[in-house]
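Form P-L/3: holo structure prediction, ligand flavin-adenine dinucleotide.
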Amino acid sequence: MKYDVLIVGGGTAGLHLAYNLSKAGFSVVVVEKRPLEKLYKITGDAIGKTHLERSNINLPPRVIENEYRGAKVISPLESITLTIPGEGYSLNMYEWSRFLASRALNAGATLLDKTTAVKPLVNGLEVEGILASREGSGTMELRAKITVDASGATAVIRTRLPREWPVSEPLRPEDVSYAYREIIEVDYEIPEPDYIRIYLNQEISPGGYWWFFPKSKTVANVGLGVWGRLVKERELNPVHLYRKYLEKRAELRKKEILSSGGGIVPTRRPLSTMVWNRFLAAGDAAVAVNPVHGGGLGPALLTADLASHVIVEASERGSYDLRTLWKYNRLYLQHYGIKQAKLDIMRLALQHMSNSEIEQGLRANLVSSEEILQLSAEGRELRMVEKLKIVLRALRLPLSVIKKLLLAQAYMKKVELLYRSYPEDISYLPSWQAQIEKLYSEYLSKLSKLVSQS
Ligand SMILES: Cc1cc2nc3c(=O)[nH]c(=O)nc-3n(C[C@H](O)[C@H](O)[C@H](O)COP(=O)(O)OP(=O)(O)OC[C@H]3O[C@@H](n4cnc5c(N)ncnc54)[C@H](O)[C@@H]3O)c2cc1C
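OUTPUT (holo model):
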């Protein structure tokens, strides 16, 4: 057994975890299919400052391309704009990967690049490592005391574990969004480059949104995300939608396309468990993403921090078994997972609203900028006075929207209660999981009924 920790995937989660654990004295290997110099993740490039602060990351200037003061959320008819304060950065994703990789390497981690993880090596009820294939060297077996899947949304190891292990739960089309983006240089000076713009429009980006994130006065990251269920049902393609609706827009008048590409974003509630014997998942592979806006860079850092904490404790106890690693599930729920589950209820409500309902919702100024920040970024419950104000403003809304919002609010409460009673250990997981699935399907069927009535 050559390594203490084997990490599959050299993305944000994998490299940050490798850094943490190497620094703590563990022998760590990261298996990454891409060449080191081509490590790059296609994203909207935006990250909130709070995520970096929480993970004690000081960015070198070469990683930062732009600084944001907040977000503007724009209604379907583009007649209403909500400005939400919140500081953040536009990252240079090449430099971000280089920065994370060099930190991990300098701390002592080994990076096996150009090496593809093929499948897990399972022995009885334990994960022993992986089978990997390396360019020019054929296949090899890599073993470690604990294996971490940080391979992104495809979760190549987690989803290939035995189906009867709850950790292997695959993502269904309704659990993901498909996104496409271009980085373009425009032929004019972008106004207010210190605000990201999020456009809600169910025709351009069904079940998602389209974005315009300035990277400088003349360069922007522009893209859209579409809900996976609608991609499947209506055979939608984000690239086609981008070409059909966005390319023609005046603000996308471009000199040059600097980069283009897309990917899958998990947008759902947390997994019922992210751990197994000698195994855990982090980042997108663990479905740690904000389901409302699809931001996963911050949660990837968070899962890496929580995972390293739990792995250090497990090594002190001399056991990486399921019972010991279970704490990771509980810590994640406490730090973010419960919020994620509540935001997922909100996500489903938004996905079941029409353009005119969203337009009227924003026009009624139902939820103020501050309240949106608290609901979407922090997942906090609103105070009584705030709720009262909302009730008064809501009187201006169509009944269909009021009903959907009240339903969402009721189910956010129910979901929170259930997640707060998350089992102490695996033995109670099946009954807990049955309850959570029942709650979500009950919510979805009530939501669908409201849609058919409106
Ligand atoms: C178009 C788009 C826009 C987005 N915009 C934003 C945004 O603006 N802000 C934000 O916070 N989040 C955004 N996200 C989400 C964010 O990119 C992810 O949540 C985040 O990158 C997850 O990090 P990760 O380390 O878990 O996974 P990844 O960054 O996906 O890293 C996984 C790594 O595993 C490697 N890998 C995969 N399979 C194998 C294999 N078989 N063997 C070896 N290695 C393998 C990959 O090459 C990759 O390097 C966006 C996502 C997309 C697709």
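COMMENT: Residues 340-453 form one domain.
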